[in-house]
Amino acid sequence: MHDFHLLCRAGEPGHEGEWQVASTIAKCSASQFVWYPERRRDKAFPDLCQEVSFAAGEGSSSAPATPAYRILRDYAGGYLAATGCPDETLQFMIMRRGVHDSEEPPTCTLLSPYEKRKVAER
């Protein structure tokens, strides 16, 4: 079993900001064996990461074409916007880490190209 973590940073190549953890799954408790509607995002997150990681393994050009990639990209952009980051360019990364083996080093399953952040009007 693995945990996935979504990291993102803003800025242009050569002028990037620090990586920030945009999303991670909290440790599950025994009471979470029951389905909780408020945790839908947490439950979907590993599926999205798995789909994008699988597509990235098939070839770098296939991952950005997936809906899961676009969802994660837009989520990372929203996270950066919510933190007050003025940069419009972002990059995100999916990291995978073993749940039970703390000695297993984290691995990068996807490093996105630099992309323009989508600005959603509310």
Characterize the structure shown:
The protein has 122 residues and is an alpha+beta fold. The protein has helices at 40-58, 67-82, and strands at 2-12, 15-16, 20-24, 89-98, 107-111, 115-116. Strands 1, 2, 3, 4, 5 and 6 form a six-stranded antiparallel β-sheet that branches. The protein is globular. The model has no long low-confidence stretch (mean pLDDT 79).
Q: Strands, helices and their partners?
A:
Layout: E1 2-12, E2 15-16, E3 20-24, H1 40-58, H2 67-82, E4 89-98, E5 107-111, E6 115-116
Antiparallel strand pairs: 1-2, 1-3, 1-4, 4-5, 4-6
Helix pairs in contact: 1-2
Quick structural overview:
Helices cover 29% and strands 29% of the residues.
Which descriptors apply to this entry?
six-stranded antiparallel beta sheet, alpha+beta, 29% helix, single chain, 122 residues
Tally of alpha and pi helices: 2
Give the DSSP E fraction (strand runs of 2 or more residues).
Answer: 25-35%
Number of strands: 6
| Uncertain segments | none
- The overall pLDDT average reads 79
